[in-house]
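Anyone able to model this chain together with D-mannonic acid?
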Amino acid sequence: MTASRPGISAPRLCNGTLPRLPASMIRPAYDRTAAAIGIVHFGPGAFHRAHQAVYVDDLLAHGGDWAISGVSLQSSGVRTALAPQDGLYTLAILNETPSWRVIGSLKELLAARDDPEPVLRRLADPATRIVTMTVTEKGYCLTAGGDLDAAHRDIRRDLAAPERPVSLIGYLVEGLRRRRAAGLPPVTLVSCDNLVDNGTRLRQAVIQFAGEHDPALARWIGEHATFPNTMIDSITPATDDALRARAAAATGLTDAWPIQREAFSQWVVEDRFCNGRPDFAAVGVTLTGDVAAFDRAKLRLLNGPHSSLAYLGLLAGHETVADAMADPVFARFLNRLMREDILPTVTPPAGFDLNAYIDAILHRFANPGIRHRLAQIAWDGSQKLPFRLLGTVADRLKDGADIHRLCLPVAGWLHVLRGTAASGATLVDPLADRLLSIARRCGAGVDADVAGFLAVDGIFPPSLAGNATFRRSLAHAYAVLGRAGPTAIRQALATA
Ligand code: CS2
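re: yes, here you go
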């Protein structure tokens, strides 16, 4: 190890080593021991630590008991990494000139699988006033229609033994049950995931679950708890060893799990908090009466193109978003897709210029300071595509508009699934088994292949899957991309 790249020999980041940080580095500007926990967050992964935890770090500098208890539902990896660091971690902000800071808002780390009781106690603590979550689309256990998926293994389990939950919804309902039994007010439940109407969906799932065994609890939740809708945005590539080394070089301390993100960050929240809230506006959060317009603009114009780059870019042999954006064929295709096919389906929030929004997104995607792997964005396609692309396709069909360009990324996803099945690589998707078995049966002809995937109604709503124009257009895109090889993919995009 050289002096400029301290590795295992450098001391570990923790409360005790904070004074060793370079003087210029931003660090918690408040007494971490004094700030009490007021927020419980499910899913303290990279996105939460790059986004919400940073807003809360800024808030804590203004005072108030809003520190975060981070709850991991599945693994104990975050706790293992961060507990020895007293919850501290390094954040790299990757603009043209990177900057670094140390975040201190995560005050407690709990691993629910190891012991659910501390999590339930925290949810039922009178000091807890807000419960937030980033558990990704699949963490809500919803059907395609937006209902709670009562057939989901974890939901079945939790309905049978609600006092020892394993699912997010099970935890929330048991926590609310305990609060009601103790005569406490409920909490505000804030979904920070990329779902259309995320708060409304969460509310429906929680009330549906509670209603299964305790209708009075369901009524109490419906009347007293609030579930604001939110829009969240900041590009956050996964942590890798290169980042660990850069963080160590920047701080002089070892951090087991530093986080990286772009400079841009946005959080829009409906101002419906039932049990108090901090002054979010003071730290740059937009509080509004209606998030829907922001939400759809972001899901369709940022996440839709992101997933499009992921599938088409992987097929063309690109590795990162910036690599694909540096390919003029991709940049031009994306630009047309966004302006000609997606923009007409988006109603902008008041005073919002959609073309300027698109310019900014294209600029963010092209950021050479960020290595955002397309393979990471390609995860969980079955959960993402309905919100990101299929709603747009349905709206364009309703308007009688052309959908040929929009079908290319959807067809690209099908080819990525086929490629994954053929190579035997792991597919990260809750529907992996089903999708891979369909992919393995492919090869009987374009129409049969496409029909196999369209039959998965958890992804393709029957009204879309049964639409003759969509089937024809998707089959055409699938055939064009099937001519294999990066050159054919680029040619398909160049002429689309
Ligand atoms: C990305 C998002 O991984 C993905 O699917 O599209 O996580 C995206 O980076 C964020 O939503 C940006 O806010």
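Residues 1-7 have pLDDT under 50 and may be disordered.
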